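Study the following:
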Amino acid sequence: MSTNTITIFHSHAHQNYGDLLMLKGVCKWVKQHNSQTHICILSMKGMELEFSEGYDSHWQFQDFPMPYKRGSLEKIVQKISRKTRSSPHIAWKARSTAGKGSIDCMQTGDRQSTEELLKQSSLLIFTGNGYLNDSYPFHVILAEALSSKARELGIPAIATGQGIGPIHNKTLQNSISKHLRNCRYAWTRDPLSSTESKSVIKHEIECIGDDALLSLKPKQEEDQRSSKFRILINHRLRDRHNKATNQQIAKVVETVSKIDEAEITCVIMESSEEKNWNEIRKNLPNSITLNYFRPLIDDSSLESTFSEAALCIGISYHFCLLSAHFGRATIGLYESDYYYRKLTGLAKHYPNTSMQVMTYEDASKKASEFSNSQRENLKRNTDLENRVVNKYRDTFSKIGLQTNEI
């Protein structure tokens, strides 16, 4: 590997358009500003990437590092699993691997320790996401182990665009605190996460913005606004254990489909939902279009898709972020405290829009009263995009990594 290697920790356990958009954005920015940099992506076991350009190698964890004693970790995971209804399979993996001291990675049959991988790195980046909370104990523990190892080796680490909270478990709170203190620089993606950081590490982390903004194409000279009455709905079909959620989103779609003169498009944001395509399609009226957003940075239709909409209704954090960022009227749907927390944080980051966070039932009522005359024609928030770019540039400069002006 090149001596100038940047390792990016990609923590997401399933294919999600917003998560991959963040990862591609960071890779794109680094390569644009220093094409000679070797980018190594480090991800969870079994995590496949839906793109091949922008990075040089991809490694996956084969064993999970558990910095706690077997008994205490088992109690933590069991308690969190009951409270947040985490997957029983995930809890089982924690108990079966507790106490292992090694962190092994694998790439196409090769195997080496994470320590060997990090020793070849000039920087470790924890890309933005909302896993620093009670809902993702494994991500928290793994992040802490990685940042601790990087600090031990003298390798600078940064945590970018982080979503923090809600955090109720004291042990995980301590783990998150240690992880953030291990990082030389850190910033959040929304104001509520910055507020939450006060209770975690006793001082407020600066709020900058989401890494996904790095992936957006340069703003066109003029905004192309459609006069048509178009509504985007972020559709989601959960597995059989979430029938209530399926029924709720179906009711929202049904309500919106009855709005006079409205053109409706349903959007899938996760490739894990792609297998449910036929099931979703057969339950939609023929008049409704169904699309799947793939994480293509150079897809010029991304901005136009949102800009042409009068109203966007979504479950996904990044669906709502893109909608608000492009100045559209936005309704964020929540089904748990976790979703309520991150969507309300996003709404506070875009105070000039009319983004509202509400239950499925309230969203159905609100959408049924919406008319094309209520559409917003706000401009794309390029100031926020520049803020994220400038933060990356300043941070790289402070660490001593050269970047080219473009």
In short: The chain has a mean pLDDT of 78.
